[in-house]
């Protein structure tokens, strides 16, 4: 770990001491914000945040279980037997010592929350969070001690602790003194896990969000325009559709409309199409030459006969119309009833294709 920060036990926004392993420099009390600038100026700097160890308990325990759940349960039971009073909202962290033993630290959750909050407020994202005494080198044959002003951190084969300097010296009179340069993160329990794990930095999504927003706006405008156009053309299409269905009903009376386009294509392909359209076209052309004759209604039967109800001024006009139709290949037969109203004659012509 290239940068070690020991927090001040009385002010978590300050350091008690710090050590820059890359630059080979160390310092005492300093604001975390000033260290943040130093850390930011170095590339790929890993940071260890060491919490004051007075409220922590650190023990070397025989925990050979493979399951983390079993390790945590056994360590918790061991600490319950040794604690003079319950530790509220206790957090546990482990480090492997080999040969089935683990160095276990227990701290109050508030200690970790306050220290991490102070570091993050200063712009420091620690990679490892542990307690100060856990950083001392292990010594199987004895103890080591780090002087911290009127305090001291001690590491023994059985565990580690931080206390007043006089008390620590009395318990570890033969402990080997160490300096900040001797501190090591290797073998120290790390609380930077679980709910306190380092958050992965998300990529800058603003350009993508902006692009996505523009696409959404453009899409919304397009859909709105398409909807309005669709409404407009849907109305026109409905009118055209109704007219087409009326013509279909006239051309193919008695035929239910299921799929009009397919039904028309089927009749065209089978050459069984209706004579409604050709007969109607010929009749319309013939009437265009007769100023005194007009069409009142038109019906078409399933037998292929077109019935036209006509009004005309005189019988010679009707005969002239029949002559034009027969010349165009249409057999025209006059109905048996002819009515006269206000000087206007009305009759029916039954038209069939002569072919």
Q: Beta-strand percentage? A: 25-35%
Number of domains: 2
The CATH architecture of the largest domain is 2-Layer Sandwich
Shape: rod-shaped
By CATH, the topology of the largest domain is Nucleotidyltransferase, domain 5
Spatial strand arrangement across the major sheet: 7-8-6-12-11-10-13
Helix-strand topology string: EEEEHEEHEEHEEEEHEHHHEEHEEE
> Helix/strand/pairing class, anyone?
alpha+beta
Radius of gyration: 50 Å
Distance between the termini: 104 Å
Number of helical elements: 8
Mean pLDDT: 81
Poorly predicted runs of 5 or more residues: none
How many DSSP-defined strands?
Answer: 18
Care to describe what's here?
InterPro entries: ATPase_NBD (IPR043129), GspL_cyto_dom (IPR024230), GspL_pp_dom (IPR025691), T2SS_protein-GspL (IPR007812). Belongs to the GSP L family. It is a single-pass membrane protein. One of its GO terms (biological process) is protein secretion by the type II secretion system. One of its GO terms (cellular component) is type II protein secretion system complex. With 355 residues, the chain is of the alpha+beta class. It folds into 2 domains: 194 residues, Nucleotidyltransferase, domain 5 (2-Layer Sandwich); 79 residues, Gyrase A, domain 2 (2-Layer Sandwich), CATH 3.30.1360.100. The radius of gyration is 50 Å and the shape is rod-shaped. It has a 7-stranded mixed sheet. Strands 1, 2, 3, 4, 5 and 9 form a 6-stranded mixed sheet that branches. Strands 14, 15, 16, 17 and 18 form a 5-stranded antiparallel sheet that branches. The model has no long low-confidence stretch (mean pLDDT 81). A hairpin with a 2-residue loop joins strand 11 and strand 12.
């Amino acid at each position: 770990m290239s940068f070690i920060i020991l927090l001040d036990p009385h002010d978590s926004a300050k350091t008690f001491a710090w050590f820059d392993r890359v630059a080979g420099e160390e310092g005492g009390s300093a604001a975390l914000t000033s260290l943040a600038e130093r850390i930011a100026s170095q590339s790929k700097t890993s940071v260890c945040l060491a919490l004051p160890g007075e409220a922590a308990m650190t023990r070397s325990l025989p925990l050979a279980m493979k399951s983390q759940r079993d390790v945590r349960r056994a360590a918790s039971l061991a600490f319950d037997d040794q604690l003079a009073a319950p530790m509220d909202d206790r957090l546990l962290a482990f480090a492997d010592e080999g040969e089935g033993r683990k160095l276990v630290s227990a701290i109050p959750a508030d200690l970790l929350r306050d220290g991490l909050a102070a570091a993050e407020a200063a712009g420091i994202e620690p990679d490892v969070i542990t307690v100060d005494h856990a950083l001392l080198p292990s010594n199987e044959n004895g103890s080591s001690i780090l002087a911290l002003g009127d305090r001291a951190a001690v590491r023994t084969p059985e565990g580690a602790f931080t206390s007043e300097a006089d008390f620590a010296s009395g318990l570890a009179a033969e402990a080997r003194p160490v300096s900040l340069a001797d501190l090591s993160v290797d073998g120290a329990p790390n609380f930077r896990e679980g709910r306190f794990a380092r958050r992965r930095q998300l990529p800058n999504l603003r350009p993508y969000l902006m692009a996505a927003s523009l696409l959404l706006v453009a899409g919304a405008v397009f859909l709105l325009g398409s909807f309005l156009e669709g409404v407009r053309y849907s109305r026109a299409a409905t009118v055209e559709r109704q007219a087409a269905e009326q013509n279909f009903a006239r051309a193919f009376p008695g035929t239910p409309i299921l799929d009009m386009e397919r039904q028309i294509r089927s009749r065209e392909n089978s050459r069984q199409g209706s004579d409604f359209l050709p007969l109607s076209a010929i009749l319309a052309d013939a009437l265009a030459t007769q100023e005194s004759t007009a069409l009142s209604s038109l019906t078409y039967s399933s037998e292929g006969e077109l019935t036209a109800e006509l009004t005309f001024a005189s019988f010679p006009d009707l005969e002239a119309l029949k002559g034009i139709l027969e010349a165009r290949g249409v057999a025209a037969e006059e109905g048996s009833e002819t009515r006269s109203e206000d000087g206007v004659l009305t009759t029916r012509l039954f038209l069939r294709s002569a072919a």
